Amino acid sequence: MCSGIHRNLPQVSRVKSLWLDFWENDLIEFMKKHGNLCAKAKYEAKVPPYYYIPQSCDCLVLREQWIRAKYEREEFVATRVCQDPCSAGSHEGFLWKRGRESKQFKQRRFLLSAREGVMKYYTKEPKGPKAVISIEKLNVMFQAEKIHHAHGLQITYKTDGQTRNLFVYHESGKEIVDWFNAIRAARYHYLRTTFPALPEHEIIPRITRNYIKEGYMEKTGPKQKETFKMRWFSLDSEERNLLYFKNPLDAFPQGQVFIGRRVEGYEVRAGLPQGISVKKRKSGITMQPHLLLQSRHEFRMKIHWSVSASKKWGNG
Asked: Taking every annotated instance into account, which residue ranges of this chain make up the domain Arf-GAP (predicted)?
């Protein structure tokens, strides 16, 4: 809860219980004159459009740094000069990155440039960047539980038609949130310059996104005769893709299934096809692109995955 974060900031916050604490009359009058709306008007006067305002369901570091940015550092008060998205979308520093082969986290230098439209990272400076990533296909999301670090980020981008995952973290909560919002600023700058006629309310949701569902499921192959194997699945609503990995922190997916529209012959159905035998009876759904029977995939998964897909896309 946010109250717990405020309790750790006694220099800027005072927390009292509505039921357990005594409220003096002068404090009640103060709250009447300086309530949430007044505080919002003062401390959120200049929140940039790309800056992510966390919700109650977001990870602790996002919520804590949002509160510190508002009340401790006063980053958004009216007297502050806001950076333009191009400047805010430029950032440089070291992050701990998980190695693709070694699986160990090692410090790597990252450079983000909204002006150039790329993010780069280096392993050995003289050899140039290890990767040059276009901001057009760049996405970032917090993955504290997945990475087993409170400040863990998952950065994704497309390379040679595949989704590439980078898993990084920083010891400083402020620094990792600064990286997160710098990438959002760079993405906002790209979208605003590429689609100048697009309304603001349509641009904001496209800056970055979280997977709408992730977790382990068991999967069989296209012949429906292979043994069910446990795989990690990620459902990407923006790309309409269901990706699956052998392990959650793999750099590349083992495969992916495009979830097309029903009018194109795609369908998500509850249950398993006849003839599929499993050791234990479990709920499942079938994902079957009818127009591409030769590349048909069948999955056994819990029914709430079907619900997630239906809520996001409906019958479209």
From this structure: 1-84
